[in-house]
From TrEMBL:
<feature type="domain" description="DUF7054">
    <location>
        <begin position="2"/>
        <end position="72"/>
    </location>
</feature>
<dbReference type="Pfam" id="PF23156">
    <property type="entry name" value="DUF7054"/>
</dbReference>
<protein>
    <recommendedName>
        <fullName>DUF7054 domain-containing protein</fullName>
    </recommendedName>
</protein>
<dbReference type="InterPro" id="IPR055482">
    <property type="entry name" value="DUF7054"/>
</dbReference>
<dbReference type="InterPro" id="IPR040358">
    <property type="entry name" value="At4g22758-like"/>
</dbReference>
């Protein structure tokens, strides 16, 4: 099983998405959570938790979306990926990657 509860931390609206992913991975590892995710931010995508949208660009600022909660998704390696299957096709309603990640990662973005 995994570690319970979301990861919560505060970042500036001006932080790049890639920096937020890096902070999330370091926080996750520092807390000794399972499963072990790895430490390369390039292996992950960040999505707005309440939107059915594409992954955020690593080079945009986290505050550009106007959202406060995000989901971290580990990219599938080419040999593991289903051909053409988007991440939203995984699992049944109320379970799967979004539900698990929503429980595991909850970022708070302050607005000024």
């Amino acid at each position: 099983m995994g570690s319970p509860g979301p990861i919560r931390f505060v970042v500036s609206e001006d932080e790049l998405v890639s920096s937020v992913i890096d902070t999330a991975l370091r926080t996750y590892a520092h807390q000794g959570r399972l499963p072990i995710l790895g430490s390369d931010p390039g292996d992950f995508l960040l999505y707005c938790a309440n939107a059915e949208s594409d992954a955020l660009s690593p080079w945009e600022t986290i505050g550009s979306q106007g959202a406060r909660n995000f989901l971290l998704w580990k990219k599938q390696k080419a040999e593991e990926a289903d051909e053409g299957s988007p991440p939203s096709a995984i699992g049944r309603k109320g379970s799967g990657w979004k539900a698990w990640i929503n429980k595991s990662l909850n970022l708070k973005i302050p607005s000024h």
